[in-house]
Write a structure and sequence with these properties.
It contains eight helices and nine strands. It is of the alpha/beta class. The protein has two domains: 115 residues, Response regulator (Rossmann fold); 85 residues, Winged helix-like DNA-binding domain superfamily/Winged helix DNA-binding domain (Arc Repressor Mutant, subunit A), CATH 1.10.10. A three-stranded parallel beta sheet has the order 1-2-3, with helices on both faces. 21% of the residues are buried.
Length: 212
């Protein structure tokens, strides 16, 4: 955990310890970044930190490490939440919160992350050919409608990053603008056509992300 409020960190650490979750907390974000993040299972990250904004810390962690991130912040600006999720955080829990909720989110995220890593063990090749306007999976052309191709091509071009619903809907002449329902149907069809080895993650309240 990277958290500059020592009292808050201590309370959360004591609570999680009763569930056999051991937490190492760093008040100094630079010390936290140099502490060997790859050896941990999950990062709880505050945004208001000394010397560097938590969003910048999140960017660096996402670029360098494969670790789930929960942003824990008292900052109420919705843009912080959107940016944090778009750059790669997996969850955002605004302060103050009940420690039980943090525990529940940790368990849920670790469970999902384990499943995702199991998918990664079976590597797949999903390729976009924009010149021919087609997508291949393991060398075979995927049969797509124009709307499905449009959505999937956006996800492939931004693989590993969240693409917002607004970016998908309002950048298209194919989809009905503002139609969340039609987009959800298209995503479900894509998941069925691509199979369980290709993971399109729903980032609640923000958009969708094709996992690497």
């Amino acid at each position: 955990m990277i958290e500059d409020d020592a009292q808050f960190a201590s309370l959360l650490i004591d609570f999680l310890r009763q569930y056999q979750i051991e937490v190492t907390s760093y008040e100094d974000p630079f010390l936290g970044l140099s502490a060997g993040i790859e050896k941990y299972d999950l990062l709880i990250l505050d945004l208001t930190l000394p010397g560097i904004d938590g969003i910048e810390v999140c960017k660096e962690v996402v670029q360098k490490y494969d670790i789930p991130i929960i942003i824990s912040s008292a900052r109420s600006d919705i843009s912080d939440k959107v940016i944090g999720l778009q750059i790669g955080a997996d969850d955002y829990l605004p302060k103050p919160y009940d420690p039980k909720e943090m525990y529940a989110r940790i368990i849920s995220l670790l469970r999902r992350y384990k499943k995702i890593n199991e998918h990664k063990e079976t590597e797949y090749s999903l390729m976009l050919d924009k010149s021919k306007e087609l997508v291949t999976l393991e060398g075979k052309v995927v049969d797509l409608t124009p709307a499905e191709y449009y959505v999937l091509s956006l996800l492939i071009e931004n693989r590993g990053f969240t693409v917002s619903k607004e970016e998908i809907l309002y950048g298209s002449n194919i989809l009905t603008q503002g139609s969340d329902g039609s987009l959800a149907v298209i995503l479900n069809r894509l998941r069925n056509k691509l199979g369980s080895g290709v993971v399109i993650k729903t980032v609640r309240g923000v958009g969708y992300k094709l996992l690497p």
